């Protein structure tokens, strides 16, 4: 199952949506994915440095507030919309060390999502994914208090610096092979984490999906209910 973080961003998210529209699931219908979006991207370097992780490299991120039509397209084409925080906050900054700070940023995301695409509420589950996949105690308590299902998955390497098409492909197939060895008796699908703000992903997603198929990994419609009700895979 495929998921995409940090969008929506024009020039990237739309190309990812185009690839998904021309990719079929096992029933022959367009493949559905999960998009863990941001309410807005902090504007200006000073503000970004106060929100993002100290090591953050990709300061150009998505925004539902700035790109409402693209956000609506995600939902209208049958994909899931998940909460990746109001902004892409670093959970270790003081303001996010307690539950209230996290609940506030989850609420900021909901306000923008409600204004832009209220139909997101029709989803059978409210989904959240921690920015940087850093699941602090405060994060876990806050998502649970707000009625979210916390969704992790396997990173694909598309966000590492100087990622290239073949490096990501090798990383992806290697991670899946190791996962299968470890969980040999577990036939449930796994969630892969891509980033729909990265040029490499917009350009090569289609190639990677072909490689997955050739390696014997079928694509499933994104649906976290196919996973166990408590934690799924270890994050990262
Ligand atoms: Zn992210």
SS-based structural class? alpha/beta
CATH class, named Alpha Beta
Question: What is the total number of structural domains?
Answer: 1
What is the count of helical runs? 7
What does the model show?
- The chain is an alpha/beta fold.
- It has one domain (2-226): Alpha-Beta Barrel (TIM Barrel), CATH 3.20.20.
- Helices cover 36% and strands 10% of the residues.
- It is built from seven helices and seven strands; from the N terminus they run βαβααβαβαββαβα.
- A five-stranded parallel sheet has the order 3-2-1-7-6.
- The longest helix has 18 residues, at 99-116.
- Mean pLDDT is 92; it is low at 230-236.
- The chain binds zinc ion.
- Zinc ion is lined by residues 5-6, 84, 88, 131.
How do you describe this structure in short?
By secondary structure, the chain is an alpha/beta fold.
């Amino acid at each position: 199952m495929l998921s995409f973080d940090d969008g929506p961003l024009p020039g990237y998210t739309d190309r990812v949506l185009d690839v998904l529209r021309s990719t079929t699931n096992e029933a022959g219908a367009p493949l559905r994915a999960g998009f863990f979006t941001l309410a807005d991207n902090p504007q200006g370097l000073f503000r970004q440095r106060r929100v993002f992780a100290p090591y953050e490299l990709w300061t150009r991120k998505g925004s539902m507030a700035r790109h409402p039509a693209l956000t609506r397209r995600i939902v209208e084409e049958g994909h899931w919309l998940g909460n990746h925080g109001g902004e892409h906050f670093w959970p270790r900054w003081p303001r996010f060390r307690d539950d209230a700070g996290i609940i506030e940023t989850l609420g900021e995301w909901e306000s923008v999502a409600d204004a832009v695409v209220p139909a997101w509420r029709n989803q059978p589950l409210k989904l959240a994914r921690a920015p940087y996949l850093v699941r602090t105690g405060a994060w876990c308590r806050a998502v649970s208090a707000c009625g979210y299902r916390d969704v992790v998955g396997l990173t694909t390497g598309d966000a590492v610096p100087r990622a290239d098409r073949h490096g990501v492909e090798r990383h992806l197939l290697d991670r899946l092979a190791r996962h299968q060895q470890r969980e040999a008796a577990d036939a449930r699908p796994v969630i892969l984490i891509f980033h729909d703000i990265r040029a490499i992903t917009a350009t090569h997603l289609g190639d990677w999906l072909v490689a997955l198929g050739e390696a014997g990994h079928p694509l499933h419609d994104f649906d976290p209910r196919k996973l166990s009700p408590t934690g799924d895979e270890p994050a990262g």
